[in-house]
Amino acid sequence: MNEIKYIGMDVHQTSTSIVVLNAAGRVVTSAVVETRAQALLAFIQGQPGTLHLTFEEGTYSAWLYDLLLPHVSRLVVCDPRHNALLQAGSKDDPIDARKLAELLRLNALRPVYHGHHSLDTLKELSRSYTTLVQDGTRAMNRLKALYRSRAIPCPGTKVYSPSYRASYIDQLKPPGVHQRAELLYQHLDVLSLLRRQARRALLAESRKHRVSRLLRPVPGLGPVRIAVLLARVQTPFRFRNKRLFWAYVGLGLVTRISAQFALVNGQLQRSGKAPAIRGLNPNHQRELKEIFKSAATAAVQRPGPWQQFYQQRVDAGRKPELVRLTVARKLAAVTLHLWKKGERYDAKSLKSTAV
User: Fold this and answer.
1) What confidence tens digit (pLDDT) does each residue in 177-196 have?
2) Are 34 and 16 in contact (CB under 8 A)?
């Protein structure tokens, strides 16, 4: 009999705790092995039956996914933010591994997407570029903080310009602070050079994929945003509809409702209460949310149907930030539709449905 086994792994830098459950939820075996390919494969290959395996998304998840996927029938890399059961009761590595196996047996895990190795290069280049952008922002913030701590006004971006650096640095009298500013400028220059190199490599890799050309005409989606979008999403078929995509990018609305039914003339009927909107979903891909919010801001500043849509609703009394949110949701829906269908953007044909 080919029995199903549910395997939970709690992975750490040096050791991995593994618990195997049968279909009834009883522990078949457990072990602690080194976090090395040979030890992990030896344990998995030594288990008979149909193997279902899970571990949490983390530092080792991509490596483990590629290593173990060929040796199991089902592999779920789960989102640790949704594993509330792990927070209850006592906690250690074997307990966590057993809880993961139990959640897998109950089909109560939220999977994290892993796949499409053809996009691995683009994904790594995207991470390099976004990291350098973030590091550059931190360096600029440190520079302004240095001047502000000495009550030196530094509005705008002039303080970063090579033409004005000497005049700003001369205002810093203490030698240590003076030298610190010079080092921060050197740090910023190196980051700027690396960012430009990473951007060129990212765009060159992105141009190899047809979808980057397909999405280029969508208002607000420039080449860098499209490259990062492609690297993060990889395939649009992960999402059955636009609402699931909205939730992933952080544009899904969270609603709350209770006591939906009332007793009317002895019959249970819907009460007609409207769900209360509690804002946007907090669990999302932050870079994608920034992409579509920035794209919406750019789209409504450009003459065309998107600007008309925005202006009509602002003139009708709606808050500008809420209208921009609506535009961001519509841009995300249009992007998903074009990507799935392989169609090119046409403002006229999409006007009735998109705006």
Assistant:
1) 999 999 999 999 999 999 99
2) yes
